[in-house]
Write a structure and sequence with these properties.
By secondary structure, the protein is of the alpha/beta class. 34% of the residues lie in helices and 20% in strands. Helix 2 runs parallel beside helix 3 and helix 2 packs parallel to helix 6. 34% of the residues are buried.
C-alpha cells in the first residue's frame, strides 16, 4: 500500500465545488461557542458536498482566523448564512418543505441507525450549544429528532464529532 499524494486525490476547485450537485442536507448550528467546532463542521460539510450551513445566535461567522484553522478554506466553498433566530430558520425551511431534525437526546427520538432518508427529500439537521444542546423550542418545532446511540459512561459527544457522524450517515444513504 502506498499513501496517495495530494495531487493524486483529484480534489475539486472552488469553482467546481460551487457548480457540483449538492447533497440535500442543510446544517444548522445554534449558539455554538467553539470556533474550532464551527470550522470543523465547515470542513466536514465541504467533504460531503452539503447544501448549506446556517449559523444562528451567538455562533461566530467567517472570516475568522480561529474558524479558518480547522475549516482550511471550506468557508470559501460551503454556502452559509447567519441568522439571529434559529426558530425562524427552522420555520422557513419547513415552509420550503425541508424536513427538520434536531440532533438531541429526547423522548421518542429515532436512533441514527434506524433513521432512513427519503431520497426525494431535503433535510436540515440542527446542532445545539456545547453545554445545553438544542434548545427545547427548536426541538419542539422540528419534524423529528435523531439520537446518536452512546453506550459508555458519557452521554454527550463534541458537536463537531456529532456533526461528522450524522452527516456521514445521511450522506452515505443518499449516495451509496
Amino acid at each position: 500500500m502506498r499513501k496517495l499524494e495530494n495531487s493524486e486525490l483529484e480534489r475539486k476547485s472552488v469553482t467546481a465545488f460551487k457548480q457540483s450537485e449538492k447533497t440535500p442536507i442543510i446544517v444548522i448550528l445554534d449558539d455554538i461557542r467553539s470556533l474550532h467546532n464551527i470550522g470543523s463542521v465547515f470542513r466536514t460539510s465541504d467533504a460531503f458536498l452539503i447544501e448549506k450551513i446556517y449559523l444562528c445566535g451567538i455562533t461566530a461567522t467567517p472570516p475568522n482566523k480561529e474558524i479558518h484553522k480547522t475549516a482550511l478554506g471550506a468557508t470559501e466553498t460551503v454556502v452559509w448564512e447567519h441568522h439571529e433566530n434559529v426558530l425562524e430558520v427552522i420555520q422557513n425551511l419547513k415552509n420550503d418543505n425541508v424536513i427538520t431534525l434536531a440532533i438531541e437526546q429526547v423522548e421518542s427520538a429515532t436512533f441514527l441507525q434506524s433513521f432512513k432518508v427519503d431520497p426525494s427529500q431535503r433535510y436540515a439537521v440542527v446542532f445545539g450549544n456545547e453545554v445545553h444542546g438544542v434548545n427545547q423550542e427548536a426541538v419542539a418545532l422540528c419534524d423529528g429528532c435523531i439520537e446518536i446511540p452512546q453506550l459508555g459512561t458519557k452521554h454527550s459527544l463534541n458537536i463537531s464529532v456529532s456533526a461528522g457522524i450524522v452527516i456521514w450517515d445521511l450522506f452515505k444513504q443518499f449516495k451509496y
